[in-house]
Design brief:
Blueprint: E1 3-7, H1 8-14, H2 19-34, H3 37-42, E2 49-50, E3 59-63, E4 68-73, E5 81-89, H4 90-99, E6 100-104, E7 111-115, H5 116-132, H6 143-148, H7 153-159, H8 165-172, H9 177-187, H10 192-201, H11 216-221, E8 227-230, H12 233-241, H13 246-249, H14 253-259, E9 268-272, H15 278-292, E10 299-303, H16 306-320, H17 323-326, E11 329-333, H18 334-346, E12 351-352, H19 355-368, H20 375-389, H21 394-399, H22 411-431, E13 433-434, H23 436-449, E14 459-462, H24 470-478, E15 487-491, E16 515-518, E17 520-525, H25 526-536, E18 541-542, E19 549-550, E20 556-559, E21 565-569, H26 572-588, E22 596-600, H27 603-615, E23 620-622, E24 634-638, E25 647-652, H28 673-691, E26 694-703
Parallel strand pairs: 1-5, 9-15, 9-16, 10-11, 10-14, 12-13, 14-15, 17-20, 21-26, 22-24, 22-25, 23-24, 25-26
Antiparallel strand pairs: 1-8, 2-3, 3-4, 4-5, 6-7, 18-19
Helix pairs in contact: 2-12, 5-7, 8-9, 9-10, 14-15, 15-16, 18-23, 19-20, 23-24, 25-28, 26-27
The structure holds adenosine-5'-triphosphate.
Adenosine-5'-triphosphate is lined by residues 244, 246-247, 250-252, 255, 272, 274-280, 492, 495, 522-523, 644, 646, 692.
């Protein structure tokens, strides 16, 4: 009976196929498990046929339906593993298959594919261009060194023409994968022996002989980073019905390089636009770190909300499989960690107050001390200056540099403000209550003072880092000793929706020389990404560490689909009716309700949307109730709680001029100009985050005047 395996090139296409085509793929694949090789060749429905003028004689196409074809690499060496490499439209299938050739890497012994036709066409052109260039990217490496790293003759000639990194990246999709990865490392300045150790040796089978003599099945088995084997019908069903799990196996070379680098000298920062796999990389880093400390080292993995922590835990369980490894990882939010630390050290954690309660308290203090500043100003001063710098006395406050604040405060004014700030803390203390950030600050202090013998984590991995406040960073710094591989941080400054201002370096977390950026988006179609990027495109945002600015330039998506739909209505009623129609269209097209999300800025519109959907029999589930992944129901959320999540289809409703920006969330320009700008940017980012949660379809609607952000 033949064996079946899937290449990573297959998943990119498979994920966006319509349901009926996916069913066709499943049917065709199941034949590979039921029929003998001879029967496969004879099967009329499958129509396994060779490709004319193919550069690789093993290329075959199979029929999925009238329009779609699968591309299969069929063994011709007596081995029995068929490799499904792509699903493409009829016309493209032959073109795709005829140009590519699969070979075994001489060093890693993995199976690689290259677009040999394109490489041959481009090489002479590039050679000419390179003749004028002052230097070439790989000129310092001899042919011998490159061959030792698995670069073969065909690739060697081509890459000798490359002059810089952008050209290498542009050429990369044509090159054999392992070879391209080796070249990327060299281009980043890694020494050949380090590249051999970290990329080649880890893949090369221990019993590899001097020359590759492997049959196709063995080469496929050597390629676990890009190819997945399927051993029976149940596994086939599992792998095809859970395509999102592709990330467990296939990492983009850039993702793999970041996640599986053997060791980093200190804290590492990985940034990237939405859907570039930052969470995936964080999960793989946890796996790598667990593998490096088999002696029972403990890892803390944090994220921003409980819903995201629950999702991370589930995904980590999928990735690790071994429950013993999972037990060594604590997955939680930083706030929960703070609660745990304070409880552990003091026997009891204080009660927490929410934002509304905090606002009321500041309002009372403004009146009590008859202050000229607003409650909002005091709350921000407390958050961005006092808590951020852990200020405990009026003397410290007088000397404090008020970074990021746009209003000057002289000594007399500070003395006045301090009375209110001090009273705020005193009152809460006497009631045994705290704000979330106060608790984090306290936990950080307790942990720091507990001394080096106190149990800590061996590694801390931080996802969704962009919204963490300095008090939260201090806590994270305090729970892991300063040493190599202490902190691994992922985040996207364009998704900052709370106004935290952080200078990581000043908190003992220096990522200098250890930063990388991911640029390939795996979640959104190019159409959705480009549209959503319009909301924030012209904005420069402060980077994660507070050292510079970042833009959204240079991101690309691997997926394509329909353009987002926008719809304007004269009334909210009409908008809600259209929302119900839109959700129906999605469910009629076969999308499960749990794969659809509806989000709005305000709770009252959420209630109305829930009411209308339920009235026509569409089940709903509130994201804040943390529904299980398989629970039916359209997910309903505020735009704030969409952070970090993803769905096949997303409707963002109520995108009016009054909702984005929401005036109460934006500090008045006269109160603090800098804060005004930061708040406006956070409002933009909020809409951007909500829209980039959509994998395949995005629908944005409003009634009355639309948000000014949409005109961007
Ligand atoms: N190499 C990969 N192959 C296939 N799918 C991938 C890969 N990397 C990421 N994905 C998928 O892309 C989607 C986005 O990944 P992930 O959530 O890690 O991105 P992110 O950068 O954390 O996103 P955001 O910042 O927008 O929350 C997920 O569905 C993930 O499974």
């Amino acid at each position: 009976m033949p064996q079946l395996a899937f290449a990573n090139t297959f998943w990119d296409e498979y994920e966006v196929l319509e349901k009926s085509v996916k069913a066709g793929v499943r049917k065709a694949m199941s034949k590979f498990q039921k029929l003998t090789v001879a029967e496969l060749h004879a099967d009329k429905g499958l129509h396994l046929e060779s490709v004319d003028i193919a550069r690789d004689a093993r290329m075959r196409t199979i029929r999925i339906n009238d329009f779609w074809r699968g591309v299969v690499l069929a063994p011709d060496d007596g081995s029995d593993t068929f490799l499904l490499v792509n699903v493409v439209s009829h016309d493209k299938a032959y073109e795709w298959a005829s140009k590519r050739i699969y070979t075994v890497n001489t060093a890693t012994r993995g199976l690689e594919v290259r677009n040999v036709v394109a490489i041959e066409q481009l090489t002479p052109v590039l050679e000419q261009a390179a003749a004028q260039a002052p230097s070439r990217l790989f000129e310092e490496y001899s042919d011998f060194t490159l061959r030792e790293l698995g670069i073969d003759e065909g690739t060697l000639r081509a890459i000798r023409t490359i002059i810089d990194k952008p050209q290498l990246e542009a050429f990369g999709t044509l090159l054999p994968e392992d070879q391209f990865e080796v070249l990327q490392y060299l281009a980043e300045g890694f020494k050949p022996d380090a590249v051999y150790r970290d990329v080649v040796a880890v893949r090369r089978p221990a019993d590899a002989g001097p020359e590759p003599t492997e049959d196709l099945a063995t080469a496929i088995a050597n390629t676990s980073s890009r190819i997945t084997f399927v051993s029976g019908p149940a596994e086939l069903e599992e792998v095809l019905s859970k395509p999102f799990a592709a990330w467990r196996v296939f990492l983009h070379p850039t993702q793999r390089r970041v996640a599986y680098r053997v060791s980093y000298g200190g804290p590492v920062q990985v940034t990237g636009g939405p859907g570039t796999g930052k969470t995936v990389v964080a999960l793989h880093r946890v796996k790598h770190l667990l593998g490096r400390s088999p002696d029972g080292g403990r890892i803390l993995l944090t994220t921003f909300t409980n819903a995201m922590a629950a999702a991370l835990r589930q995904n980590l369980a999928l990735l690790l499989e071994d429950p013993a490894l999972l037990d060594r990882v604590e997955v939680t939010t930083v706030n929960s960690l703070a609660h745990y630390v304070v409880q552990e050290r003091k026997g009891r954690a204080p009660a927490l107050i929410n934002d509304a309660d905090e606002r009321v308290r500041w309002g009372r203090l403004v009146r009590k001390f008859d202050l000229a500043w607003t409650e909002q100003f005091l709350a921000q001063e407390y958050r961005h200056v006092i808590l951020a710098q852990d200020i405990g006395s009026s003397e410290e406050y007088l000397k404090a540099v008020r970074r990021g604040r746009g209003s000057a405060l002289g000594p007399l004014q500070r003395a006045k403000v301090w009375r209110a700030l001090e009273e705020f803390t005193r009152q809460l203390e006497s009631e045994g209550k705290r704000t979330h950030l106060q608790l984090c600050s306290e936990a950080a202090r307790l942990r720091r003072n507990a001394g080096p013998d106190f149990p800590r984590y061996d590694h801390v991995v931080v996802d969704e880092a962009q919204d963490l406040h300095p008090a939260q960073w201090r806590l994270l710094r305090a729970v892991v000793p300063e040493r190599p591989d202490d902190l691994f941080i992922t985040g996207d400054p364009h998704q900052r929706i709370y106004d935290s201002k952080v200078a990581l370096g000043s908190l003992g977390i220096s990522v200098a020389g250890r930063s990388s950026r991911l640029r390939v988006n795996y979640r959104n179609t190019e159409e959705i990404l480009v549209w959503a990027t319009g909301i924030v495109r012209n904005e420069l945002v402060e980077d994660l560490g507070g050292d510079g600015m970042e833009t959204l330039a240079g991101y690309q998506s691997v997926l394509h689909g329909a353009r987002p739909r926008t719809a304007a209505f004269g009334s909210e009623e009409a908008e809600l009716t259209a929302l119900v129609d839109q959700v129906r269209q999605w469910t009629d097209a076969g999308v499960r309700t749990s794969e659809i999300a509806v989000c709005t800025r305000f709770n009252n519109l959420i209630d109305k949307a829930v009411h209308r959907l339920v009235a026509v029999g569409i089940p709903v589930a509130l994201v804040k109730d943390n529904p299980a992944a398989d629970e039916e129901g359209v997910r309903i959320a505020t735009t704030h709680s969409m952070k970090g999540l993803e769905f096949r289809c997303v409707a963002v409703v109520g995108v009016t001029a009054g909702a984005f920006p929401f005036s109460r969330a934006v500090t008045d320009e006269t109160v603090d100009r800098l804060q005004h700008e930061t708040d406006l940017l956070a409002e933009r980012c909020l809409l951007f985050v909500a829209c980039t949660r959509a994998r395949e379809a995005l629908y944005v609607s409003w009634s009355g005047a639309p948000s000014s952000f949409l005109a961007a």
